[in-house]
Write a structure and sequence with these properties.
It comes from Aeromicrobium choanae. InterPro entries: Bact_Solute-Bind_Prot2, Peripla_BP_I, SBP_2_dom. With about 350 residues, the chain is of the alpha/beta class. The strands form 3 sheets. The protein has a 7-stranded mixed beta sheet with strand order 2-1-3-4-5-11-10, with helices on both faces. It has 12 helices and 12 strands. Strand 6, helix 5 and strand 7 form a beta-alpha-beta unit. The radius of gyration is 20 Å and the shape is globular. It folds into 2 domains: about 140 residues, Response regulator (Rossmann fold, 3-Layer(aba) Sandwich); about 140 residues, Response regulator (Rossmann fold, 3-Layer(aba) Sandwich), CATH 3.40.50.
Amino acid sequence: MNTISRVAMVTATLTIGLGSLAACGSNDDGDSGSDEGKTIALLLPETKTTRYESFDKPLFEAKVKELCDDCKVDYLNADQDASKQQQQAQSAITNGASVLVLDPVDGKAATTIVKSAQGSDVPVVAYDRFIEGADYYISFDNERVGQMQGEALVEATGDKGDILMLNGSPTDPNAAQFKKGAHSVLDASGLNIVAEYDNPDWSPDNAQKFTSSQFNKVDPGDLAGVYAANDGQAGGVFAAFKSAGAGDVPPITGQDAELAAIQRIIAGQQFMTVYKPIKAEAEQAAELAVDLVNGEDISGTEDFQGVPSFILDPISVKQDNVGDTVVKDEFYTVDQICTAEYADACTKAGLS
């Protein structure tokens, strides 16, 4: 019997360039067809965050293919549209999906999807973002992510000065956990949050606009740092400082270990990111989905807000441990990070 054990924080090797593996019935509009077989619907929320198309999707598909020859993955992306995701989910259910692996655009709205699926005896795995009432939940310790970001900013600023705070989307349940964790550290520190922003769709452009607008109230050079909840926003913040002609950009936090963020960290343009080994998360979700399709018993879960869950550990990445984290795990190669623009910085950081 294939049971699932709790994932320990031992990061596995990730091969970049898996590409888009063939997924029968895979599309973006929910017209998946009704072929017979064991269908797993993978519903992801958006494409602005690079992880979903580049990592989550191909890793999940590859693991399902490895574990189950007669399973197929019906992949759908909602493009940050909760209504579209509702339609996609309903279409997947109607067309015979055996299980939904759902990363919701809007966690609260997704409870409707859960009820509809369960009404059709289709279990729902809440992937990366929590959904109340889901059958299972797989994610990282998201409150800890926020704490790590807050702790890094306190470290980088010497625990004094004014900062900006850019959070994630209010409809993203993870964003609330990141925010809670960060505030638990920042509110007890000597840092002063002069302005705070909840970014409606995690947009880097919105982050840049918000940051630039604050420069009408505070001189960029007077800011001790910026809390950015993810790397996309960190990139927007950095662009705002450069557009304002700021000489030295203050410490900026991030999350997701995007390649551009790792390069900014190597170059001293971003202080840190939070690396969440997506391979472990995606493969755990695939293994769970296959077990559910095959009617296997599930073991090794823990309780999270009443839902059987698999909670993984995040890792803080700074300039001094890039080689021991994302490079060691082959999340990125040195060649990918150390392009011509970053060659000198990589040499100084001991990466090349």
